[in-house]
Amino acid sequence: MGAVTAPIEIAPSILAADLLSLGDQVRACFEAGVRRIHVDVMDGHFVPNIALSAGHIAALRPLADEYGGVLEAHLMIDEPDRYLGDFRDAGSDIIEVHVEACPHLHRTTQRIRQLGAVPGVALNPATSLTTIDEILPEVDQVLVMSVNPGFGGQAFITGAVGKVSRLRATLNARGLGHVAIEVDGGITVANIEALAAAGTTVAVAGSSVFGGGCAVAANLAALRAAADQPGGRGSSW
Ligand code: DX5
Ligand code: ZN
Asked: Which residue minimizes the CA distance to atom 3 of ligand 1?
């Protein structure tokens, strides 16, 4: 693969947004140049927390359409197959399922594609890349969790950087360089450069976009500046 010139994409996670003004917060993201909004869905079983639903996707759909935006559902739920239709009907463009929750991952990803959405597979920090060896040709993106899923605002697990490097090398070696690598959890100005250099395509960020007492636009600008520092983007893929 040749050098990549596109900057790392930042996907705000609305888990950290002020839910009372969710529309305004998401609009601020789109106005600041964001294309993709990340929606964390938690069932209280797969992860020890309950959050967001297809209803949030449906509510955000018209706003996303106004800006040509993309809505991504990160399903941290058991038996995701039961709800794929609901999330697609609500307006999800991308549906991500956890490899740990899918005994028939090939069937699940095929179903997502049949529904007209883009399939992604997500891995918990302790889940090996070998678990997705067989499914890589079938997906458009891999979500590498850099925290144990369930909560926003957790500390970044540094081992995720090496995991991204190894996955990027595997994808390149197998002629799958088009597969996006997304990283989710604990991303800040302190680690986004290393993630970009390792071959991350999309950085999901909640607290560092919606928190910290600064406006969303300023937070996004700080993250982009940190990611675009010299050395912030590798040229190996
Ligand atoms: C964690 C979620 C993440 C989380 C990221 O289970 O999947 O998307 O909201 O939030 P921060 O950036 O605060 O770690
Ligand atoms: Zn997420």
From this structure: 185
Query: DSSP 3-state assignment of 190?
Result: coil
* Residue closest to 150 by CA, chosen among 124, 175, 126, 170: 124
From 18, 24, 40, 81, active-site residue: 40
184 part of the active site? yes
pLDDT, position 213 = 82
Average pLDDT in the chain: 94
How many CA atoms within 13 Å lie on the side-chain side of 142? Answer: 34
Ligand 1 center to 1 CA (angstroms): 30
Of 168, 191, 192, 196, nearest in space to 180 by CA = 168
Does residue 129 have a pLDDT over 70? Answer: yes
Mean pLDDT of the region 116-139 = 98
Give residue 211 CA to ligand 2 midpoint distance, Å: 16
Q: State pLDDT tens for residues 182-205.
A: 999 999 999 999 999 999 999 999
Q: 94 C-alpha vs ligand 2 centroid, how far in Å?
A: 12
Mean pLDDT confidence for 29-52:
98
81 in catalytic set: no
